[in-house]
Amino acid sequence: MKVIIAAENASMKMSGEAALALYYFDRLHERNVNTWLVCHERVREELRQRYPDDRFQRIRFVKDSWLQVLIHKSSDLVPFQIQDRILGQVIHLITQSKVRPVVKQLVQAFDIQLVFEPAPISPKAPSYMYGIGVPVVIGPMCGGMEFPPAFQYLESSFNRLSNQAGRAISDFLNRFIPGKLQADILLVANKRTANALPSGYRGKVYEVVESGVDLSLWQPIEKQKAKPGEPTRFVYMARFVDQKGIPYLVEAFKQVAETTNSVLELIGSGELLEATKAQVAALNIQDRVNFHGWMALDAAAALIRECDVYMVPAIRDCGGCAMLEAMAIGMPVIAANWAGPGQYADASCGILVDLDTEEAFVNGLAEAMIRLAQSPDLREQMGEASKHRVRTNYLDWDAKVDRVVEVFEEAIAQQTLKPAPEVAGRMAQSVVSH
Fold it and tell me: From the CA atom positions of the chain, what is the Rg in Å?
């Protein structure tokens, strides 16, 4: 099998979806799939250091155009929302347009059988991977997110209108840049994402989880039995922003601190950091809450391994890589029963808290934390179930890539069954004449 991965960024140093291309590039190679990669030259040095010569020779890079440079330099003159939602997307589309001809050249030069585009993960983002001459697989995508009904007030009118406008513009652009519409297979994380795909697509849709955990890095840990009187340590690692639910977690922990001798470890920073510190002080729980700020991944992982329960109070989160990593090492989770976190965990490995109202959510978090704080045996049982779940539901990278390879094989097999264009033309004429 010969495959090209098309992605703007391919980096383990950048955050988020930039790493997706490399996870696939590495694991497809391990499965003896001849794989090429086309991406932006900004990651050239990182990849030069990461791969030996024979692997690096299978990577092609595209450069910024003068227009991209001009847009980037002028972006500081406009508000962040415009930078992120408009200018950033324009730069991305120009990069994609430059990737397409390189992909087409590789297809012809090396008899490539399939093109795979794992990012961007937005279901609405247009794709230039059309008219390539081979099957195209896009995804896994994740998106179409909304706040739960009881929490929609958190989204400002400006953001709500800009999201609606952005989605309308994306639908319009997908008519002129029809990669998503013409793709052979579209991979989506869930039905919500499938519903957010641009109308008019013709490819098959399969559900494959977007997030994943690298089990070679996140090995299970052996925890000692909890000693009588030893505090239960709950840990949160995410940005301090509304959608991550940090204010509700702190408010819930007030009840937990009054009932148990538990401790709350907070890893991360963001626009709500100072407000969260003030909230902790106002609730008079400073001696039970530890702020660690932003931490390097290895240091954060070491701290997480020392804790007992992983907290995911996010109320608008598509994925949850950090949550899967915690589950992989054997931690029970308490998570909002919404979107990605609500999909990744189940009752065997954690407690999912509904978001019917803010008060119910806070009380539900508190009750779940108190329950686990008071039951070391239940924590141990759920921790074992967490390890099992990530290894049996396509939640780890190896299992996920195996599933994606199955999809590739199906797409290639379907392509071989299609008649050649000239044969298809004669068949169509024959049908018409009869």
Answer: 24
Burial 42-68 (b: 16+ CB within 10 A, else e): bbeeebeebbeeeeeebbbbbebeeeb
Largest CA distance in the chain: 86
Alpha helices in 112-189 (DSSP H): 157-176, 179-182
Pick the CATH number of 233-390 from 3.30.470.30, 3.40.50.1000, 3.40.30.10, 3.40.50.2000: 3.40.50.2000
- Pairwise CA distance, residues 152 & 154, whole Å: 5
C-alpha atoms less than 13 angstroms from C-alpha of 42 in its C-beta half-sphere: 14
Which of the four pLDDT bands, split at 50, 70 and 90, describes residue 213?
confident
The verdict on pTM exceeding 0.85 is no
The CATH H-level (homologous superfamily) assignment of domain 2-212+396-430 is Glycogen Phosphorylase B; (3.40.50.2000)
Helix, strand, or coil (residue 53): helix
The Cα 123–Cα 188 span in angstroms is: 8
Angle between helices 376-390 and 321-328 (to 10 degrees): 110
Element (H, E) at 4: strand 2-6
What SS3 class is residue 185?
Answer: strand
Give residues with Cβ within 8 angstroms of 426, minimum separation 6. Answer: none
Alpha carbons 186 and 146: distance in angstroms, whole number: 21
Each residue's pLDDT tens digit, 230-273: 899 999 998 898 889 999 999 999 999 999 999 999 999 988 99
Cα(174)–Cα(132) distance, integer angstroms: 17
Residues with Cβ within 8 Å of 123's Cβ and at least 6 positions away in sequence, in order, are: 141, 142, 143, 144, 180, 188, 193, 194, 196, 197, 198
Domain(s) of CATH 3.40.50.2000: residues in the chain: 2-212+396-430, 233-390
Q: Would you say 226 and 257 are in contact if contact means Cβ atoms under 8 Å apart?
A: no
DSSP 215-280: TTTS----PPPPPTTPPPEEEEES-SSGGGTHHHHHHHHHHHHHHS--EEEEE---TTHHHHHHHH
User: Measured between alpha carbons, how far is 23 from 401 in angstroms, rounded to an integer?
Assistant: 9
* H/E segment holding residue 398: helix 397-417
pLDDT tens-digit series, residues 366-412: 999 999 999 999 999 999 999 999 888 778 899 889 999 999 999 99
